[in-house]
Amino acid sequence: MADSIALAAGAVESAVALGADEAEATLTVVERFSVEARDREVTTLEQSTGRSLTLRVFVDGKKATLATSDLSLDGLRKFARETVEAARHVANDPYAGLPEAQAFPGDGSALEMYAADVRERPNEAKIDDALGLEALARAYDPRIVNSSGSHVVDVVATITFANSKGFHGSYRGTQVTRDSAPIAQDGASKRVAHYGSAARGYASVEAVDSIARTAARRAVDMCGARKPQTTRCPVIFERDIAALVLSDVFSALNAANVAVGNSFLIGKGGHKIGSGLVTIFDDGRLAGGLGSAPFDSEGVPTRRTVVFRDGVLETFLYDTYYGRKLGAASTGNASSGGVGPTNFYLQAGTASLAALVESTARGVLIVDTIGFSTESVTGTYSRGARGFMIENGELSYPIDEFTIAGNLVEMLAGIDAVANDLRFDGSVVSPSFRVAEMTVSGT
Amino acid sequence: MHLDAAAFEKILTHALGAGEYADAFYERRINRSFRLQDGKIHEAGLVVSRGVGIRALSGECTGYAYSDDLSEEALLNAARVAALIARDRAAKVSIIRIVGEPAQAHSVYDAADELSADGQSAKYVELLARADVAARAHDPRVRAVNATLSEESQEVVVATSEGRYVRDRRPLVSLAVQSVAHGAARGTGMFGDGGRTDIGYFTRRSPEEIARESARIACVNTEAIEAPAGEMEVVVGAGSGGVLLHEAVGHGLEGDFNRQGRSLYSGRVGERVASDLVTIFDDGNLAGERGSLAIDDEGTPGQHKVLVENGILRGYMQDRLNAGLMGAESTGSGRRQSFRTPPLPRMCNTYMPDGASTYDEIIASVKKGVFAKSFAGGQVEISKGDFVFMLAEGYLIEDGKLSAPIRGATLIGNGPDVMTRVVMVGNDTRFAGRSYTCGKSGQYVPVGVGMPTVKIASVTVGGSSLG
Fold this sequence. Notes:
Shape of chain B: globular
Strand content of chain B: 35-45%
Order of helices and strands of chain A: HEEEHHHEEEEHEHHEEEHEEEHEEEHEEE
Oligomer: heterodimer
Largest sheet of chain B: 7 strands, mixed
Distance between the termini of chain B: 68 Å
Number of domains of chain A: 2
Structural class of chain B: alpha+beta
CATH superfamily of the largest domain in chain A: PmbA/TldD superfamily
Radius of gyration of chain B: 23 Å
Strand content of chain A: 35-45%
Largest sheet of chain A: 7 strands, antiparallel
CATH architecture of the largest domain in chain A: 2-Layer Sandwich
Number of strands of chain B: 24
Number of helices of chain B: 10
Number of strands of chain A: 20
Number of helices of chain A: 10
Helix content of chain A: 10-25%
Radius of gyration of chain A: 24 Å
Number of domains of chain B: 3
Helix content of chain B: 10-25%
CATH topology of the largest domain in chain A: PmbA/TldD fold
């Protein structure tokens, strides 16, 4: 740890010696173990420790950033020099610079970011988990005849930060991911599904048998899927897909996008945009949250921010630079040179997902989407999708090869039910929710 | 550790262990970039990626470790970790000696030898400023311009337990411009170009041209109406329409998916998978194209591959692991994002050659449909074969003529289904602006796509208008 602080602080010092007015450095050390199993074989085993350093320098209000895996003394000096030189070609910007001096907010032990069992659990047990996911998924149903593999990945990350205002700090975190992607044979067709769980440690990640069962059930349930008719109807987004919609909402709240005119929420601060069920938090202090950290990538303490309250847009999310530019304080969302989520989530409701389906006379349940382009300036949303037709409050048959489309402003306003199935297995998460009406495009 | 032949041989001896094959991949990549925002140079970036990835193969199994620490202790430790994959097996092969200097790959690039930082920054800044001025001058509706220029040099050395010892130096430049225009509504336009060449490329392909294209698309999109919903005739535009080939066919022909029986194209070589108008190539040897590779990341020379010929599936794209297990030869398709990740079979530049129809004939043949002029990207699920491609610029076609522009929408289809419905192929094939990046298993690599204008009899358009 002392070595890490010396390395980060040394990089800052050398940048200043080379002519930078201010500088900050982050050293990230990631120990990663990863196993992939297919059927009864361990198909890939990977283990490495990677180190990288990010150095941000400010020269006369001009900013340049170095990210390097060459941590040799010669390499650091050479590339730090080039970074300072490059900064001289940038335009002077009155908003560029380090944040105001901060007190060290602690190593974040209250945030429960580090689980000792990630290092303690033997590799053999982790390999058995991956093989177990495969075996249990295949045993679930005779139609499960193949897979895209099951994975166990664990990571121990140590982050060390230093800047030229004398701030330095360090924290560590762990993450465990288990997932499985079985393939069901459906006549001449193949149905692949994916399900996984991620958490800070083995004590809190979902159990192997439950992951395997859910993944296999998803593949089998898609057998016989057909293309639905084009229509407008209510759309229920299952939890993981709801989180993807929320990622688009985050992009529109990202001050870096707002500042360049690339958000459909520009000028909407203080307005009621969403339905009364839309209360969204960004909480960097959530105990055990995968996006939690004591401070952000520029050393600003993280915090809990109410982004939407009862449908009203309360604030965008800022780092120091875009905060200054747009006249707001940083919300502690600086993330590797830009603005990123901590634990960004929609507040859960009280009903189960099953109850949401039951209360839908006619509609669709979306369990998977493909595609990724949302037109940020207008909020135009369109995705390929798979899921189930809902008739009379019941899942009647699986559907695929169709799209769902709408506009994010109308979708936020149209959220008329939110389920109680929120879990914190990513940095952008959501409970399942229903949008009153969208376009389903099929035949 | 000085990485000469003796050092690689030592690393590979430790990595091979009881496995059948081992390789080491040294990489030193330097990427320099400048970003423009609000009419000013906003920031400069320098990314240095240097390290060694070490792999051991045993049957279907891969052991992998990397090190960014080039000390002997760290590299040999990584080699031993990779060798663990075969620890329960009996040794079968021994290493073939690594000697001399690595052989320099025959270049398919179009660049000066060494990328030098000196004096380049001023050139980058000038190119960005010219792009900004041109985008704004194109139309007063253009209100914001964001542009990024990057130049990269990747030096690689590949050494294998079979005695292969080769090197390559790969250049890559790109200029990407995003314009936001305010009209009836707000519109964005994104356009980029570049390739495996150096900054001199932008003397032939001016930043003004690239910026004006971005501004033009942004202005068109201010007038766009909601896209229609439902199945209809779709004309896919020349150039970036190649995203269709990449998603609908290309991924499904990658060796790993086929060896494992996961692709809907598994076991179908020699069968009809598209209409007889459809021929698809993948080529690593096109001078300067973004996906070109003199050698792949396993040291195999880049190749021209016939994937589909007149509708018949001809072959897969292979890396060493999957080729070996399928009794085939590598096609020079083993690619990786960096030394931190093992290679996978990937596409290089995927394209369709010219057909017989003209653009005008194709548009005139459509009574009611959509002209999908360019694409922001696509995605595919390779087992069932459903794929999407996302519109960046599109128009309604009514009575054989282009009418209103339509908002960004996703189009969805099933690979062989859609390819069987290709009913007209244009004589205007070309490569898209060189700006596409392909993701697979979390690894991103630059690729090229090319296409003539093509008419598909029926595709589902994912707009929100039922009108």
